[in-house]
Design brief:
The chain has 366 residues and is of the alpha/beta class. It has two domains: 202 residues, FAD/NAD(P)-binding domain, CATH 3.50.50.60; 142 residues, D-Amino Acid Oxidase, subunit A, domain 2 (D-Amino Acid Oxidase, Chain A, domain 2, 2-Layer Sandwich), CATH 3.30.9.10. It has nine helices and 19 strands. The strands form four sheets. An eight-stranded mixed beta sheet has the order 5-6-4-14-15-16-13-17, with helices on both faces. It is globular and about 65 Å long. It starts with a strand and ends in a 19-residue tail after the last helix. The mean pLDDT is 97. The structure holds flavin-adenine dinucleotide. The site of flavin-adenine dinucleotide (FAD) has 44 residues, from helix 1, strand 2, helix 2, strand 13 and strand 17. Flavin-adenine dinucleotide binds next to helix 1, strand 2, helix 2, strand 13 and strand 17.
Length: 366
């Protein structure tokens, strides 16, 4: 059984560590901060393969498979750790404020139904019958009853706890680069100390391209900043995830509403900006006017690991015994269960549940 080093303790690193440790591998997660310090905690936790989809294909298939794994994962993590990751099968409404947007939703609903997926177009009145807090200005909406949400912070905590209980070691340290010999990876350099292993997994999110010696072009995975605002309601105003043309609202059970987000290619700058907050709050109040009175309890920004074709890099990397689990862009929480499964299978030399060809690091540029 291999010993494995995982660079990065986000949702990917923790999920893969859990699956490898359960399979009997000796696993060490190397995290420069604390598990879940970056994008995995900044996210909204929306599990929306249908709403997010750019059309039929391997990415939609991957996302649907991962979404389907969530109910069992939530059960498993509760049994292993006692943590309820707040997986909520709440459904999602995508609202349109004008005819053009409504036509686009109509087209999306049509192709998704043709694929056998549940989706429904409704007029404004029917949408407000489902969610009375929606603005009167909403002309119509697409209802995706199978798109859901999870509390991503609890998810990372549960995954890291379960991985540690299964025998994975978590070590704080900055991986400066890979130790290599010819075209094979031998281990990593952590803060100047060499660590050797039979396999290395890069799960370093937006920082993947900065791992020295990996032969991965830093341009392949780039940071895309997303700002978020948290509002605190005493009584929840709505129960579904709500999307508008300029953002979304995620209602947590305890009355918090996460409002997001921006999409900015501004390098590794993680600041929250006045313009970002203004845009998010304007969107939030346009979708749901009653939110104008809601107290703002927090705000933050995180870096999505962006790829040009919006697909992640999964499986074998450019060096022997090097594996990738990176570039999940805005669907990393959704894709965590399937990524953990297929990347651990690849590391263990098993046939992967999903054909990883479309997600190879050397796929042609789109
Ligand atoms: C605002 C926002 C909203 C989002 N909303 C959603 C959503 O609703 N649904 C969804 O599915 N996805 C969402 N995402 C995307 C999702 O958060 C990411 O795709 C996912 O978290 C990526 O996980 P990761 O483990 O690859 O990266 P990260 O969580 O960024 O983890 C990478 C880790 O690697 C560590 N690291 C990096 N380099 C090194 C090094 N050299 N040495 C040691 N450690 C290192 C970092 O400290 C970090 O902890 C959102 C993202 C953002 C920013």
């Amino acid at each position: 059984m291999k010993d494995v080093l995982i660079i990065g303790g986000g949702v990917m690193g923790c999920g893969i560590a859990l699956r490898l440790a359960q399979a009997g591998a000796k696993v060490t997660v190397l995290e420069r901060s604390i598990p879940g310090a970056e994008a995995s905690s900044a996210a909204g936790g929306i599990l929306a393969p249908q709403m997010e989809s750019e059309g039929p294909g391997p990415m939609l298939e991957l996302c649907l498979r991962s979404r389907a794994m969530y109910p069992k994962l939530a059960e498993e993590l509760r049994e292993l750790t006692g943590i309820d990751i707040q997986y909520l099968p709440c459904g999602l409404l995508q609202a349109a404020f004008d005819e053009a947007a409504l036509h686009r939703l109509e087209a999306t609903v049509a192709w998704q139904k043709a694929q056998g997926l549940r989706a429904e177009l409704m007029d404004g009145r029917s949408a407000r019958a489902l969610e009375p807090a929606l603005s009167d200005r909403v002309l119509g909406a697409a209802h995706f009853p199978d798109d859901h949400q999870v509390d991503n912070r609890l998810l990372v905590r549960a995954l890291s706890t379960a991985a540690a209980r299964a025998g994975a070691t978590f070590r704080t340290g900055y991986v400066r680069g890979l130790l290599t010999e010819g075209d094979r990876v031998l281990g990593v350099d952590v803060d100047g100390e060499p660590l050797h292993a039979g396999a290395v997994v890069i799960a370093a999110g937006s920082w993947t391209g900065l791992v020295h010696g990996s032969r991965i072009d830093p341009q392949k995975v780039r940071p895309a900043r997303g700002q978020m605002v948290e509002l605190q309601l005493r009584v929840p105003l709505f129960s579904r995830v709500l999307f508008g043309p300029a953002g979304y609202l995620v209602p947590r059970l305890d009355g918090r509403v996460l409002a997001g987000s921006t999409m900015e290619l501004v390098g590794f700058e993680k600041q929250v900006t006045a313009g970002g907050l203004q845009g998010i709050l304007t969107m939030a109040i346009a979708l749901c006017p009653d939110l104008a009175d809601a107290p703002v309890s927090s705000f933050w920004a995180g870096l999505r690991p962006y790829t040009d074709d919006h697909l992640p890099y999964l499986g074998e990397g450019p060096l022997k015994d090097l594996f990738l689990a990176s570039g999940h862009f805005r669907n990393g929480i959704l894709l965590a269960p399937i990524t953990a499964r297929v990347v651990s299978e690849a590391v263990l030399g098993q046939r992967t549940t999903v054909d990883l060809t479309p997600f190879r690091f050397d796929r042609p540029a789109r």
